[in-house]
Amino acid sequence: MDIVVRPTAQAAARAAADKVAEQVADAVARRGQATIAFSGGTTPRLMFGRLATLRLPWQQVHIFQVDERAVPAADPARNWDQLRELTDLVPATNQHPMPVESAHADTEYVHELDVTMGTPPVFDVVHLGLGDDGHTASLAPGEPILDVDYTDVGWVETYRGHRRLSLTIPALSRARAQVWLVYGAEKSEVVADLIDGRTPTPAARVLNRPVASVYLDVAAAPSMSVT
User: Fold this and answer.
1) Residue 206 · residue 37 · CB < 8 Å
2) CB neighbour list of residue 42: distance below 8 Å, 6 or more residues apart
3) Extended beta strands in the chain, E state
4) What is the b/e burial string over 91-107, where b = at least 16 CB atoms within 10 angstroms of the residue's CB?
5) Is pTM beyond 0.90 here?
6) Distance in Å from the first CA to the final CA of the chain
7) Could you tell me the pLDDT band of residue 75, with boundaries at 50, 70 and 90?
8) CA distances from 210 to 2, 175, 192 (A)
9) Tens digit of pLDDT for each residue in 111-158?
10) Residue 221 scores a pLDDT above 80
11) What is the mean pLDDT of the chain?
């Protein structure tokens, strides 16, 4: 596992974006396409902005979602809309929003993953965040989805006010690369739990140390040196 600590959130986001870009370029060179799943929330917006400025083979990039709230398409709570500056760079056929308005969204998204990447699907890179309760994606403490190992996509019935669709631990752990981006002093305790691995938080269960890169600002990692 690589741990990168930068002096500011902006610098951490920039470094994470550069890592994602590196993985994308390598995947296209090796396999002719790159598949990436992005998490939602406010934390990655700086990273998205940086990525959108980079010259990458966007025509060969497929963009998926790590998780999504089950709200109407026009609802501002939808994570997909936050990805617009990136999805605008790829062909419409390479845009893969979670179909959360469908009653069968979980099985439909599994099919889309399999069609694009084969079975089992392997993402070239997944981007992950970290909640103050130790959740990542929409995999929250105590949720039954944490023990799901028979499918790559599942429902979370209600978490923080919304029903959600999420990739499961097998799908997230199988990725060729995980890029984590976390900042803010309020995350320092859960960051420590994630890195030392002694607390079995959802994020710690998802973390695949051999392929993970964790990008932090100094506020989230007060005991670590800037790298």
Assistant:
1) no
2) none
3) 2-6, 34-38, 61-65, 67-69, 125-128, 153-159, 162-167, 178-182, 212-217
4) eeebbbbbebeeeebbe
5) yes
6) 14
7) confident
8) 9, 11, 18
9) 999 999 999 999 999 999 999 999 999 999 999 999 999 999 999 988
10) yes
11) 95
Question: Whats the size of the chain, residue-wise?
Answer: 227
Q: Token pair for residue 151?
A: 């499918």
Peptide bond into 144 cis (omega under 30): no
Helix (H, G, I), strand (E, B) or coil at 80: helix
Residue, of 50 and 74, whose pLDDT is higher? 50
| 3-state secondary structure (DSSP) of residue 181 | strand
Residue 7 token pair: 């002096």
Q: Which domains does the chain have, with CATH numbers?
A: 2-217 (3.40.50.1360)
Neighbours of 156 (CB within 10 A): 23
Give the tokens for residue 60. Answer: 């060969």
CA distance 31 to 126: 17
**CA 210 from chain center: how many Å?**
17
